[in-house]
Inverse folding.
């Protein structure tokens, strides 16, 4: 089975010289949820733009569902679905009319479109509101409608550009569930971009971290965290004034110990198995512990490790900001 | 496939329009006020010696009075006027991501333009027809002038008038929709529209006969597509031997050619604007 997305040194230089994507090579496997993670302006949307035929690559090659991006744009368009970061549902139409329009422009046979629409509306919990104008929908409902429209023609690859941007936590969780369900039910490969670390962690099978147009690291969330070199165990003794450092260092498997006021941060490759040994060692040294906490390394740390800076939003207007502004504008109109 | 997409996209445009009643009411009121206030107030026929029918006919290209002459011009002007704002929808569609959504869909680019043009032409014809109807109905209201048609209404004249409106609407809706695809700023769009709108009106014979214009303006007026369309209307409504250089069919032919050239150029520009960059 061909990989649904393959890129080789994909590159995009905008007129004016900005090198938004600087040689991206990835392979996305069939049926996986692949996440593109990076701050605003990292090159995520530009990559999606190229893979979805919106933008012309300046260099390199790319194949979507085995089709060459340079020569087979029209065939690619039939095989991909796309949900943009800005809301593209037509708010003067009802939810159902939006889906009917999508079915017509992707030429889904009418009978098939009806069955699929009924099923998708049900899965997105929109059956009750299908005949309401989209302008009365909440942000989460709009997003689910756009997702339904994005898969009405059973695409092979579904691109989601910041699918949860501007949604509240509940809405974000709902989208996550729906995306996974669509992958499980229809076997569609999902390529999503996000700047939410926790979202990439929870939702994606594999993640590529992109910064300044280049892939910094690629792997499953667990693999990426393993690269950080293990877990962080934080312990606090019951009595202050006892120096635990020599005791902790003596435990086999401890990589390093750092003291932060009364607490000790221990780096270790296997946090779970070492915890009882540490508790016992401290007890035996007459320095019983008041608390123990184990933290698996988060993607925040992964990001810090591979890009050399803490994960935060970059300054300057971006497409994401534009989308947010449009949402506010729309909100005010209502 | 193409036809289905064309129909679906056209219906979408019209649904959006129908669901904005404020805009519709305002667009109906505008030509209504033109007819009610401008036409009635600007009645330059009053300056002619009353009862001198040949002088009136000569002044107004065969129309029995100024109001009838003006109404025919107004029908065509409203067709132009309705086409002006259609491009603004495109600018909003671009901002809302709708155009992007269509761009990644397997729809021929010409269909994307075609659907907007079809919906636009429909609106133009509707308003043109409405102006025609109102002008005729004004006869029934005491104290108002109305449109008097002096020729027998035939199937051919109806078809010719319909085609004249359609060709003009097709050319101008394509033009303004294409402007909408090319221009990013809504302010720039409206500035351009206003720049085109009034000169086109005043350099046509919609409001005043070419005979009272200075000769340089008369040349422009006679070649103005607005005048060409109005000629088709007036020749069919108030036949007047000797005034018109050509038969209405010739004017229609020139208009058709104009529409084909403009639409073809617009398709080219739009396809370029919608292609991956």
């Amino acid at each position: 089975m061909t990989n649904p997305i393959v890129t080789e040194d994909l590159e995009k230089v905008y007129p004016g010289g900005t090198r938004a994507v600087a040689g991206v090579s990835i392979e996305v496997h069939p049926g996986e949820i692949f996440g593109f993670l990076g701050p605003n302006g990292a090159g995520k949307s530009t990559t999606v733009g190229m893979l979805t035929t919106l933008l012309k690559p300046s260099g390199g090659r790319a194949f979507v569902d085995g089709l060459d991006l340079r020569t087979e744009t029209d065939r690619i368009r039939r095989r991909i679905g796309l949900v943009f970061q800005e809301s593209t549902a037509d708010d003067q139409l009802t939810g159902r009319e939006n889906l009917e329009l999508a079915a017509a422009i992707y030429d889904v046979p009418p009978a098939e479109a009806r069955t699929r629409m009924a099923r998708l509306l049900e899965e997105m919990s929109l059956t009750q509101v299908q005949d309401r104008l989209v302008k009365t929908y909440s942000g989460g409902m709009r997003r689910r409608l756009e997702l339904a429209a994005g898969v009405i023609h059973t695409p092979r690859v579904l691109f989601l550009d910041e699918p949860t941007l501007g949604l509240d936590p509940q809405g974000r969780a709902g989208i996550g569930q729906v995306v996974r369900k669509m992958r499980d039910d229809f076997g569609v490969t999902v390529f999503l971009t996000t700047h939410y670390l926790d979202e990439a962690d929870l939702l994606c099978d594999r993640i590529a971290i992109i910064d300044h147009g280049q892939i910094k690291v690629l792997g499953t969330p667990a693999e990426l965290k393993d690269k950080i070199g293990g877990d962080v165990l934080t312990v606090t003794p019951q009595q202050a004034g006892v120096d635990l450092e020599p005791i902790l260092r003596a435990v086999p498997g401890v990589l390093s110990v750092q003291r932060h006021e009364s607490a000790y941060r221990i780096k270790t490759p296997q946090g779970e198995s070492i915890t009882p040994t540490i508790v016992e060692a401290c007890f035996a040294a007459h320095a019983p512990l008041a608390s123990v906490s184990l933290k698996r390394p988060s993607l925040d740390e992964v990001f810090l490790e591979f890009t050399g800076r803490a994960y935060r939003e970059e300054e300057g207007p971006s497409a994401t900001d534009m989308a947010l502004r449009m949402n506010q504008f729309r909100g005010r109109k209502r | 496939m193409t036809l289905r997409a064309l129909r679906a996209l056209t219906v979408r445009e019209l649904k959006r329009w129908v669901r904005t009643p404020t805009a519709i009411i305002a667009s109906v009121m505008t030509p209504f006020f033109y007819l009610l206030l401008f036409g009635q107030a600007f009645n330059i026929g009053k300056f002619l010696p009353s009862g001198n029918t040949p002088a009136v006919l000569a002044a107004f290209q065969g129309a029995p009075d100024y109001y009838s002459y003006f109404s025919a011009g107004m029908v065509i002007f409203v067709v132009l006027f309705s086409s002006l704002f259609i491009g603004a929808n495109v600018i909003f569609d671009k901002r809302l991501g709708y155009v992007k959504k269509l761009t990644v869909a397997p729809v021929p680019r010409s269909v994307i333009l075609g659907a907007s043009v079809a919906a636009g032409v429909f609106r133009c014809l509707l308003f043109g027809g409405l102006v025609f109807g109102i002008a005729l109905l004004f006869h029934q209201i005491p104290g108002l002038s109305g449109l008097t048609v002096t020729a027998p209404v035939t199937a051919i004249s109806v078809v010719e008038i319909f085609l004249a409106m359609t060709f003009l609407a097709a050319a101008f809706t394509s033009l303004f929709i294409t402007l909408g695809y090319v221009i990013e700023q809504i302010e720039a769009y409206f500035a351009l529209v206003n720049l085109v709108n009034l000169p086109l009106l005043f350099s046509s014979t919609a409001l005043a006969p070419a005979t009272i214009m200075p000769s340089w303006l008369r040349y422009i007026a006679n070649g103005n597509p607005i005048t060409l369309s109005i000629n088709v209307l007036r020749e069919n409504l108030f036949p007047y031997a000797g005034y018109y250089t050509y038969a209405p069919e010739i004017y229609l032919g020139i208009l058709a050619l104009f529409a084909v050239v403009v639409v073809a150029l617009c398709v080219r520009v739009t396809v370029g604007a919608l292609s991956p960059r």
